[in-house]
């Protein structure tokens, strides 16, 4: 038997240990550590989804795991931004935001309730959860002149902690290290989507200081969707922040790496200046005269581009002493461009000068045939002239203008995004309580094609014309999508082909029926998008193995 066939057979054998949903062949696979099948149903041919951990939010004993260090650990709802890295021992680490309010949930390891980051160790061959725990042990908050540390020994008052950590970014080491300057520690960035006074944090995920989180006042206060660091290795540190407001801005932080201080000092996250994206041709993505969202934004159509510049904030770029309201006022006074709800963003994996982001706008009823309201959710690219000199600006390009029909891959209310190793943009929808079934899609920037990869399980969450099944509702959203192909490159779950792609993501099932600790429903999942044709062989291997097992009974 060839090595390639051996790997395929091994993958088939592992597959026998995963529960296959009735009627879905290899489509939906229940992982060994959860009692629930995947909330995501494949749409594109040969796509496979796997559930890893679930909070069904119906009992206190739902999906509990070994806690790293001893005890048990329960999955908590409203999972959002994700990060992952290989541990080098057949397991990988997952970092997961939980977007719960500052007054919700129970007291966490950093001493108070509210939003937090969980840390998971997953077996890459079986997707079994080895263990989990809270990442944040020490929370360092800015007091105007320095940091005050809060933890179980010095806890914040209940409700005074972190609120609604949203999308996240675990950038490669190259984002924060360059030779003698910077830090090799993995930094997980995430911010509070809580309105104008939202803060942003760097959570240290590796090294001697793992478990410490720092507020980053130099990056500013606003309703943070995400803070995304450029992976391009240089002495400068470049982080783009998106303000999820209506309207909201896109900000660029530029700092300098150092060789001394804390991990965040060395990473260049405490000494830089904040700028706003400014499009001279128009201060607004849409105007009141464009109430129907039909006009071309900034005078450009789909595929078109126009220049943008970087407008420095607060004269010097130092916003560490400003409130969010003051930052917003400064942006308005300096005509920093306002977009229709900037959501998630991600750097291109093929072009260091390109940054993608989406604007959500509002639900398009016309596209779904459910009403007369028009929405224009759009995909943009910021093409910097030179990422080593980001303040020189560049061109902003409109890639998807929101008018695309459902038949042509049209999406509604784009939210979380990621870019895979091939340069494709993975996009999820957040339609927020509308009958539209939220989906995951893949956009190819070379061809402009949009492919729907998966959708929510209609039997649980419903769709247009189909109601949800209690306790589930139609208020559902996938989030946190990241490419983990390199991590899964040697997993026994692969089909033995080098171009199989793996995407890790989660699901926010917005219903509350369980304990105070659980808050809401949710699930951690992974999806495989294999080369066409391979699945037939693996399916046959699993089918034969299953048949033989039945005959032996």
UniProtKB/TrEMBL annotation:
Signal peptide: 1-27
InterPro entries named among the record's database cross-references: Ice-binding_C, PhoX
Keyword entries, A-Z: Membrane, Signal, Transmembrane, Transmembrane helix
Transmembrane segments: 524-547
Keyword Electron transport annotated: no
Pfam families for the chain: PhoX
NCBIfam families in the cross-refs: PEP_CTERM
Official protein name in the record: DUF839 domain-containing protein
Lineage, uppermost ranks: Bacteria, Pseudomonadati, Planctomycetota, Phycisphaerae, Tepidisphaerales
